[in-house]
Each structure stands twice: as C-alpha cells, then as structure tokens.
Amino acid sequence: MIKKGQSLPDDDHVLRHVPWQRLLRDGNDKVLGFLPQAFQLRDGEESLSANWLENCDGTHSNKIQQTVSELRAAIKVGPKSAFGVAQVGKVKEVCKSNNRAHIRIVLAPTKSIASHVEIKELPRDDIQLLTMLATEAFIELVHNKSIL
Amino acid sequence: MTNTTKIPIIVVKAPIKAIRSLGSCTTAPGIFASTKLGDTSFAVRNPIDGYTFSESTRLYQEQVKELTSPPSPASLQNLPSQKSIEEQLFDATASVKIMTSRVAMHLEREWREKLFNQMDSLHDPLEWMEEDTPIEKSSFATFLKAICQIKPKNRPGLGLAHGGNLIAAWTSGSNRLTVEFLAKDRVRWIISRFRDEEPEQYVGQTVVSHFLESLQPYQPNEWFGK
Amino acid sequence: MKPLSYKQPPITEAVIEIKFVTTFDPVRLDEANKKFAKNYPQHQAVKQQLIKINLPNKEQQGSKATAQREESVGHRRSDPDVTQLLLALPSSFIVSQLAPYSGWEAFFKRFVRDWNVWKRVMGHNEIARIGVRYINRIDIPVVDNVARFEDYLNYYPHTPTSLDPVLAYAIQTENYLSNIDCKLTINSAVVEAPILDHMSFVVDQDISREFNPPQKDSEIMSLLEQIRLEKNRIFEACITDKARARFQQI
C-alpha cells in the first residue's frame, strides 16, 4: 500500500491528461501523438501532474477508465483531448539518460483526485527531455472520446 | 537667484491612451496625469518641450503631427474590458487572422483557409484550458515569416504551448520536426528520429531568418515536401 | 483603358467611408448594427472618448478648471475570417475589405448591399464626406542589404545622393483631382516587413469629396465608380513595371 509522499514502483503506470492544443497532429488534424510541450511545466508549477493507474483495480483498460472518470469529475477534460500512459520505470529511465534528471514520481492525492501524482525534479525547459518523454516514455495514447 | 517655472498638474480621468494623445496635441501647459480606469495608478505625460522650443517650432511640430494618417478600420482596437473566455479566444484568433491577411498576397488561398481552421480549432472554447494563454501575436508573427519563406508543400500540425507560443510539427513516419515560434523572431526546433530503432534528437534555437539554413544538415525536404 | 488586374494585389485594406453631418444616437445606431448581424456575425463595440478641458486664463483668475468627457459607442462587425468589416460609428458608415482583395466588383457590390440596409434603418441623412481609401503594401526584396525602392516605386522622397542610403521615410502629399472634384491624399512610408528578406513600403491613397458631396444614391455610386478609376490610375502612376511583375499581372 503506497502512502502519500511515497514513490511509485517502477512497474506501475502513470496517466497524463493532454489537452487538444498539445497533441501532435498532422496537417489535417489527425492525432499522431504528443507534443513535447505536453510535458512542460507551467510558470509557477513545481512538479508535473499525472495520475497513478494502479490506484484502481482491474485490467489495464479498466484502470484507465476509472482513472479518467475520476479526472473528468475533478477537472475539465475536453472532448478531443487524450491521455498518455507510461510505465513509471520508463519515465525515470528516459529522464536519467545522459544524466538529464533524477526525477521522483510520488503519490500526492488531492481532495478530488485520489490517484494524483507529482513528477518532481523535472527540468523546466529541457526540450530534448520533453521530446523523449513524448516519443519514448508516454507511448500509449488513449483518446478521451474512446472512454465511455 | 533661481528662476523657477511653476507647472500646473492637470489630472483627467480617462484611459492612458487618450491622455497621451491629448498631451501630445495640446498647447496647454502642464503635466498631464491620468488615472487609468479602474485603478489609482498614475501615468504622467510631461509636455516639457512646450517650454524648450520657440512658439514657431512648436507650431511646426503640431503641423507635422497632423500629417499622420488616421487609423484604418482593421486597426481599430476595442478598449480593454472584462471579457468572457469566448470573447478573449475570438479576439485572439481575430488578431492573427488580421495578421495573416497582411501577408495574404504571399500565401495560397487554400493554405490560408486551412490555417484559419486550425487556429479556430486551437481556440475552441470546448477544448480550452483556463490556465492557458491564447496565441501570442509575436509568436504568430514569427510563424508567418517562417512559412512565407519556406512555403512548405506539406502542412504542419499546429499546437499551442501553455504561454501562447505557436508550435508547428511535421512528421514523416516516426520522424518528426517540432518547431516552437517564440517572440522577437526566434524559433526553437527539435528533430526526433529513429535510426536502426535507436532514437536520436537534434535541437536548435535561432532567429527565424536563419531557421531554414539551420535545418539544412537534416534534410528538411523530408518534412516540408519541396 | 481597361484597369490592370493582379493575381496578388498588394492591397492590405480597402475602405469606403460615408461621413454624415449629424451624429446618430446610440439607440438608432444599435438598431442598424443588429441588421448587419447576419452577414457580419462577429461584433465588437468601439468606444470613442472625447475629453474637453477648460483652463482659466489670466482674465479668469479665480475661476476653476473644468473638464467634460463625452463617450460615444460605435460598432465594428466582421465575418468569421475577419476579412470583411463594417463599422457603424456615430457619424460614419464604413465598409472595409482586408486582403486577399477579390476585386472592385465584389467589394462594391457588398458596399451597395450594406448601404441599402443602412438606409432602410437610418433613413436619409445629410452626407458630409465620401471617401475611398486603399492601403497598399509593396514588399521589395533586399539584395546585398539594399532594397532598391526606386526600381519599384515612383512615389518616394527625393533626397541628395550624398545622404544615401535612406533607412526610413514617411511622406504625405495632397492634390486636387479636378476631373472628379476630389481631394487626393497619399501617404507613403517604410513599415516593418512582415516577411523575411524584404523591406515594406506602404502606399496609402485616400480620395474624398468633402465639399458638396452627392446626396442621392445614384450620384454617390457614380462618384465612387469615378473614384475607383482615378484610384487605379494613381496607383499605377506610383509603381513601376518591376512592381507589376511582382503582383503577377493577369
């Protein structure tokens, strides 16, 4: 049982909501993946928000569905937005490569989102790292409209 | 003995823009101060040159100032006021559409129309995140300069960073070129490729006038399709 | 002489303005504004403020300074693409077309349509001024750090060669067009270029009649057509064949 403030196991998964504006699309708006900016910290943000899939039970799809439902109840999730799913260990590995960053992914539940996690120590503006997160870590894309 | 000129202070309740305009065209002496509507900060406009130059020079100055052409309808701006998010998003897209019209003679009509659709899509209120900033005009200006020069055959996908910078992305299989257009004619780009299933990245940041040149070692035609 | 047509005309904005002697009350103006909603769905209120300050002179010592503010609200409407604009202002009716410019016929047809709508609501009001303004921006390539504007333009300041190169300029001239009894104002200046490797030059011409403008619709339209011909003639006089080649003469 993981408590608040503890790091997630490498085998677990995180899900990140990516709004329409930061989805990688082709010239005809067909979604292809994530832009690096989908993982960029906002001004004033100290850590990157995501959600812990294993906070829920069931199959991988069930966990995604439940986590998305929790998110929808708490934040605005645009119809054309999507979610990126990554294995915790892979996220850490990508960040560690070339000594870029030693991140921690810790459970940080809020009042309305029990599965909320913080990805800490993420460099603020390393576009190369953000691209690697988009292309090598968060390789599973789930469209919001595919989840009932 | 010091000769001191007393300068009256004239305070007028009006937007700063109006006060500056007034201060620049009146021959009434004084320091013009403005209370910006809604707060108590002062903007001081000081036509001190009224005391520096002769009467005839000041008259010439006024005549030259009158030789400015009036603003065109497209350049008329509404005074800032509390606007809904939909209005803010519309204003943002309207601004960039007007900017695009200024280079319409350098763009294909179909390209321009699709660009407008993409901008509308990026600013769709249904998809809009409250914490985001709509498209920044300075970023869009940089984008237009790049596109008018490169004239890519392949259209990019467009995105928007949190702070309002426009992002353009071209893809070729699993390879991608992502460009973020910054203010003051700067661009930041990253190429991500897979070679023998191993990922590679190449990063650059330069002024927009050198952008195409900076991509030459990386076969830009792969994305631009020229 | 048949007017020249261009595939890529350098027009950035074309404007037809009718100014009135009277000022319309906001309620009536808003009534007209609403009639244009179908063709110009996007709306913005345009506020204009006039501040009057009265300062006492020596003879009025002891009197207080007074200030009055007059605020008027007009309306700016546009199509979704913000290329077709209409302004209903307290003393003016303005129809504007941004680039890409589709030709006089389309622009004038729209003006006539909108003028008829305006008149149905506002009725006849004495006209003070009729004006047509065309703002052109000519983008000239920079070669070896020089943009040879004199190769493209016939309207630019004449300066001694010992002062070359010219880094920037702004000029204005006024002429009287006796054949149509109108005033011509041309403004030309170097402006910031929106595209790379070019310098941009605005040639902004405004043709207007302020003295005894026509009041009947048929005469107004006739004057506008005459202004159009003059506007074309003047523009062609301001540019060279090299510029025409850049606009891709049809």
Shape of chain B: globular
Estimate the strand proportion of chain B. Answer: 15-25%
Number of domains of chain A: 1
Low-confidence parts of chain A: none
Which range best describes the helical content of chain B: under 10%, 10-25%, 25-40%, 40-55%, 55-70% or over 70%? 25-40%
Largest interface: B-C, 39 and 44 residues
What series of H and E elements makes up the topology of chain B? EHEEHHHHEEEEEHH
Roughly how many Å is the radius of gyration of chain B?
25 Å
Rounded to the nearest angstrom, the distance between the terminal CA atoms of chain B is 77 Å
- Gyration radius over CA of chain A: 14 Å
The helicity of chain A comes to 10-25%
Tally of contiguous helical segments of chain B: 7
SS-based class of chain B: alpha+beta
Category by helix and strand content of chain A: alpha+beta
H-E string of chain A: EEEEHEHEEHE
Quick check: average pLDDT of chain B? 80
Descriptive report:
With 148 residues, chain A is an alpha+beta fold. Chain A has helices spanning 60-74, 88-96, 127-137, and strands at residues 13-18, 23-25, 31-34, 48-52, 82-87, 104-107, 116-120, 140-143. Helices cover 24% and strands 25% of the residues of chain A. The two termini of chain A are 29 Å apart. Chain B has 226 residues and is α+β, with helices and mostly antiparallel strands. Chain B is 34% helix and 23% strand. Chain B has seven helices and eight strands. The longest helix of chain C has 22 residues, at 217-238. Chain C has four helices and nine strands; from the N terminus they run βαββββαββββαα. Chain C has helices at residues 26-35, 104-122, 217-238, 241-247, and strands at 11-20, 42-54, 66-78, 84-89, 92-98, 127-141, 170-177, 182-191, 198-209. In chain C, 27% of the residues are buried. Classes of the chains: A alpha+beta (148), B alpha+beta (226), C alpha+beta (250). Chain A binds chain B through residues 19-29, 32, 35-37, 40, 42-43, 76, 78-81, 127-128, 131-132, 135-136, and chain B through 114, 118, 121-122, 124, 126-132, 154-163, 167, 169, 171, 174, 176, 178, 180, 188, 190, 192, 199, 201, 203.
